[in-house]
Amino acid sequence: MSEAPTWYARRYNSVVARTRETDPDAEFHIRQIGAQNHASRLATIDYGDAFVLDLQDKGGIAMSGAIHDQALTAVFLWGEGTTFNGEKSEIPQLRIIGPGTEFSLEMPGRYRLMRIGLRGEALASLRMASASHSDRQHRLMPGVHQPRLAPGTEVELQQKLLRTAGFAEAAAQRGHDLRAALAVAASEAGTALAQVLTHAQWPPAPSLSSRERRDMVDATLAILEANPSSPVSVGAVCEVLNVGERTLERAFQECLGVSLRAYERERRLRGVHGLILAEGDRLSITDIAMSFSFWHLGRFAGAYAALFGCSPSETRRRIWESRPQDP
To answer: What pTM, to 2 d.p., does this model score?
Structure first.
């Protein structure tokens, strides 16, 4: 666990101001839709293995992004005309967003979003619990899941999230040292979510033959081959193949031992590596990375180094500074 929680409560009067915030569990892109002025209030706590957020907003925005591969997020989202991955969100129903899931939101009016993310030891413990309940393992697979819960259970979880975010707002506004209360509230919220997921009723996963899974993976690989330098949306692939995200991810895990998102990212990283080998003497690392749609250069460099054992600039130096001189 970290020594102290980080928190803030802020108000924004533009989408531009909102986009300056970073998120420990997701990457996202925000743009304004409609002509209404944007205004929002946001309170967060990040402590150890839990990140809690409460957002109240008005004014149209659209948001797209993806949950990190090592995080799981639970969301209550509802508002005027709000859609989550194309589905209306008129009531605050709990959604579980598995690691690696892409998402898209459209929020043209007033809305509220409450969210809690689990990662680190909390997510590892949840994985261990899932291992002993094979019929529930899919809750940690990519995709948006809606387990069956008693309405009272959802209300209790909402209250935990609001209480946690309320401590963040009080700490930010009053300037008091509330770190102990913040830590307790965040830990309680994370524990509450883990308990909810452990005891929820999950719909059964569809059963496919090994041949069907292999055919599904081969069809996906053909789609990736047609888009060698651009990231391919998991949701778009599922729409083309008419399958669910969870089903496709299970097929990739069974056939290739890796998630589709991880496979697609590694494929583009290998493309970067090949271009460094071929044209690293005349192209910059930035140009090469962006040609394969890696826009966040810090994360790109880290992912490249994790895969190849050295940074992209070090790869270029080794390859091109050691080549024989032209006669």
So the answer is: 0.71
